[in-house]
Input
Amino acid sequence: MMKLSWVWIVIAIAFLQLVTGFLDFNETELSLIEAYDYGVSKLNYNPLMVGLTLIASASAKGAVCLDGTLPGYHWHRGYGSGANNWLIHLEGGGWCNNVRTCVYRKKTRRGSSTYMEKQIPFTGILSDKADQNPDFFNWNRVKVRYCDGASFTGDTKNKAAKLQFRGQRIWLAATEDLMSRGMRNAKQALLSGCSAGGLASILHCDEFRNMFPRTSKVKCLSDAGLFLDAVDVSGGRTLRSLYNGVVGLQCFFPQNLISNIRTPLFILNAAYDSWQIQSSIAPPSADPHGYWHECRLNHAKCSASQMRFLQGFRIEMLNVIKGFSQSRENGLFINSCFAHCQTERQDTWFAANSPEIRNKAIAIAVGDWYFDRAGVKVIDCPYPCDKSCHNLVFK
Output
């Protein structure tokens, strides 16, 4: 109960800042990386398409998107040995941090189910094909859509702007609905998420564990959710400004949370996370003369001094996870790639040329950890030694 109260305090403070607004961080909404969200790998010509289910019971619970529409998820039923196993994947997509950016966001799929795709491809960790997703292909696989703008947290509103900040209620409404559809009988469950959803999988990890009997095997996976409180290229802290107030309570940054998570947690992150480079380390606001413009879009165009700065970011990330990695139950896969969200894309999750560390692909590493086949705590050598990376390059 004390932990739950602490989380609600964090959420309340966070949203006081988010609703009043003080920073125009529109890049979280417009990041070039989001163009990759539903990109289907050329390796997967016929992905499973899964329809959107709106949560009818959510409205009565006040669990609505930014614009007041119903939240939803995409669910493909498990079968065979996976019929009683559940994988819940929380969608990512940045944040809105003030009224103006949240008003903009409620006219997109990130803030309204009106604009959500009616069907999306299930690839990577959501794939239904054993040769593309060997450990979870026949589980119940659910992608919960993200429409609250704050990593499935918060419980307030802004009447003047007609904004609903109901992420915590959406999380509860979605899990309660899925529980009623069979998840309460889960023998094994995994909560995962990408980017802002990866942060949410950390924030809600212990809550998720507590939904099931102790006899159920329950773990969590955060993909690209390790957002660091890092110094940007101007010497400022862009992401700290976004989380202002929350950081004052030492709570919202994942690096301040991971050591307190009791449930087994796997952290998957690129050491040179593309989103963090673009939106936190070298955003235009910190680089008014455009010195970093080419580097932030294409790592091959970074100067020697810029690469030294990025190597420092990698070292900071490794220092952050030192304590976390000491737990026998936790897992770790930090590859030296310029990437973001590697579980959702088939070519990075599991394919013939997927990224590897010590000859182990991400899907195999996660499976080995989840099923206790092996301890997995692997950290790549620094860039440019890893030739297996699928680095993101933007035009």
Confidence is low (pLDDT under 50) at residues 1-31, 245-251.
